[in-house]
Amino acid sequence: MTPVQLPIFGISGMRGITGKDLFPETVAQAAAAFGAMAGPGPVALGRDTRLSSEMLCSAAAAGLASAGCEVVNLGVCATPTAVHYVRTNRMAGGVVITASHNPERWNGMKFVGREGAFLPVEQAAELKRLCLAGETRRVNWKDLKLARSDRNAVALHVNAVTGCELFDDVREKLAGRRVRVGIDAVNGAASQAAVLLVQALGAVPVELYCRTDDETVRKGFPRRAEPTAENLADLCRIVRQANLDAGLAFDPDGDRFSCVDETGTALGEEATICLACRYVMPRRKGPVVVNLSTTRAVDDVCVELGVTVERTPVGEAQVVEKMRQSKAALGGEGNGGVILPEVNFTRDGLVAAAVVLGTLAEAGKKLSEVRAGLPEYQAVKVKVEAGRKDFAELAERLAGDFAGSKVNRDDGVKFDGPDWWVHVRPSNTEPVVRIIAEAKSKEQARALAEKAQKALAG
């Protein structure tokens, strides 16, 4: 087989722009390579609601089948739903057709190992090598396996979250108060699951963007994909207008989550992991693992709770690997991702949503009051057009400009000051260098980000 030129391929999987550098044949070959790596056993296949996802899902199914896999088609489902399905059903692996939080023209593939987690760095590198080389074992026609469908993955995932001991009494407490929450799932893969979760935990769902029918899919996402504060204007408005108790927001594949309080104020995605620490850690003992780009507010919260924090390079696989090594009780990332090992070894938007509902149930406070008790930091995020190959030279320009600060080179370069930090690193999912600066004031964070940006520009 002729090798293909891959789009971006990193520890988060493969992503590209559909019709530009991502085609059905690209997906089929990557799926076949993964199927050969996965070995005997069924492979789960799920997808998000992008217009291109149905097409690419068919290509993935063909590629997996050509490698001798039994494809179990889960249909539209959140990435954490597919990961949970692989883990609990002891599958050989899983593939999810999604570009997660990327704009709608993008699509891609996430690869799940038989342990129910994304591929570790070494396996992801080997998969990339196989794809580039076109070295894929194919079976003859007699050894092909018929595909089957299973549409129970969403219900199984919701039941696993709501059945977790952490959320035992949430339904009873919320149902008696008739708590109402808005849901903005960006008409994505978590739409059905989010509504079911809210109902199962005793609250009343008010659906904003939770449709996945063909007509809705053709129209595209109703807002930008990431559930960042600036993208949630419609959810903030409906929370205020309908006097809701909170708003829940997801990205298109349901692994990132953020929320809105009863005043219609978006807390921002960095608050998600802090809320999770506040809710989970009094009930579970063990370290918390987050990546280097996650807010320092996590450290402040965990100091209050008497819990240690460990940090890793950016990338869910890196966080999960460290969680396993340290037997962490909780993990996540500042992009709105929460990892609760007893449910899922992946960022799980349903778990994050359950944490918010649990917080409302236990605190006897409004979400705005809970928000007021979180440490205050301001972050500025900037992208600079540059590839990973150019970064080593660019990074050296930064060192002199941030002399005297604590330096970490585990992932790009991070500079830590007494009440600020700057992390500069090449993206795993886009051909850009990301600059994240955090400080006590927006002005200071912006100045730090601009300083890094100027250093990179020379």
Task: Provide the descriptors you would attach to this structure in a database record.
about 450 residues; five-stranded antiparallel β-sheet; TATA-Binding Protein; alpha/beta; seven-stranded mixed β-sheet; 20 strands; Alpha-D-Glucose-1,6-Bisphosphate, Chain A, domain 3
Summarize the structure.
The protein is α/β, with parallel strands linked by helices and 458 residues long.
Would you write up a description of this structure?
With 458 residues, the protein is of the alpha/beta class. The chain has 3 domains: 8-151, Alpha-D-Glucose-1,6-Bisphosphate, subunit A, domain 3 (Alpha-D-Glucose-1,6-Bisphosphate, Chain A, domain 3); 155-372, Alpha-D-Glucose-1,6-Bisphosphate, Chain A, domain 3; 378-457, Alpha-D-phosphohexomutase, C-terminal domain (TATA-Binding Protein), CATH 3.30.310.50. It is 38% helix and 22% strand. The strands form 4 sheets. A 7-stranded mixed β-sheet has the order 1-2-6-5-3-4-7, with helices on both faces. It has a 5-stranded antiparallel β-sheet with strand order 16-20-19-18-17, covered by helices on one side. The mean pLDDT is 93.
